[in-house]
Amino acid sequence: MQRADCIKRFKCFTDVSYVVELGVPKGDWYTGRVQYEFKVIEKPTGQDLFFDFRGVKIGKYVINGQDALAGGQNLFNNHHVAIPTALLKVGEVNKISMFILNKYRSDGCGFHNFIDQEDKRQYLYTQFEPGHAHWFFPLFDQPDLKATWQLSVKVDGDWTAISNEAEVEDAGKVQALNQAVDEAKAVFGDEAVKFNEPKTFIFDTSFKISTYLYAFVGGPFGYHEKITEGMPPMRIYARQSLVADVDHERMFMVTQCGIEFYEVFFGRKYPFRKYDQVFVPEHNYGAMENVGCVTYNENYIYRGETPTLAKRLRFSITNLHELAHMWFGNLVTMKWWNDLWLNEAFATFMSFLVMSKSAKLQEYHGTCWVTFNQYKFWGISTDQLSSTHSICTECNDTDEAESMFDGISYGKGSAFLKQFFNIIGYEVMSKGLHAYFEKHAWGNTTLPDFVGCMAEAYKQSGDKSLGADFDLAEWCDTWLNTSGINVLEPILDV
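The structure assignment produced for this chain is given below.
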């Protein structure tokens, strides 16, 4: 997606919601209906508004009760589903529905499909960051158009389904789901979408979150569960052939340590209704911080091995990193991918801070900051390449955003935040974060919003140890908007 298109849509739309009703069977295809509601603030002239969708077919496309496909016009081209502006109502709630037919993928992006070679069971999961949610269904795939979504799925009888929200009972939505799937099959005439003793999962409506954080996981997963007073309900899922190898007790313990620390340091309770963690096959990354449904690379399952301290620490870093995103990234989200570095660097730094402070994670105290140096070295190595860039950099589209998951964003960015923390101190940073989450909860921010809250907390602390004229925002700017490393060269005077 081009940033210019996303800016235009942000000016036009608000109060967006998606209702997604899908038939998701074994095989290669899925189908269903998506219903949209949003308010139009203003509408530009011409046909330049669209949903993003990298799918196979759309059908029965209705806008405010009118057939958008009347006359046989083709509104689905080049991964865009055009929205005829003449059918929109300014200042009112607009209602749209659309049927879709799509195919599972095998590249780890969008809606990924995997067949377990041990037992031939099929597993599905979504991976949407930075801009792959529209590979699942048509939507406005940009982080600043936060929206609620309510997902209902029909799956085969031996599967379970997991999403951002917990399952709820709603007979009306079950009936609507079944009707939507049957109608979709009639619209597309596709015999490939068949079910074996199907069952339905109706998920609660989500909070208003960014589309890259939506998630759905389906298949015959097994799980471990932990219910603790004062904590969100937690489950850890894995494939049937691997669930017994998951070190779930340690994983639950580390997660609870993280929640306890973050709730105090951030000044805000865990912001969502549950916390599921799912090991999935062929994950393109180490993990992904989907709201309430974190996915992990199966390489973190030890599979009978007794892991070393270093391996346990490595996975705990990832565990605590994804958990930090529930606040920093999910509750408060970057407005655009320019600030991807802050999202990732903050979660990286926080994972080490938790390990260094939590009494229950004492086994990591002696080595965690030594391990952090490896992130610094990653940043230094990347910073010496011809492709280096400043920590803060302009991002014109989501293709550029994908290239920013590198040593600058993670390594150099987290090293900057570590020094930032050392300058302002534990109490000041905590106070600044309290204000940040209070002010921006459920919204989108840019770097100045974060620095502004930190600078105000530093100012209120009265700290003059760096001089009365020390400007925290100016200090940040010198590090964030330059590239390359500092080189010290000795000159011998003999």
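Interim note for the steering committee: Residues 1-103+124-211 form a domain with the Immunoglobulin-like fold (CATH 2.60.40.1730). The longest strand covers residues 29-40.
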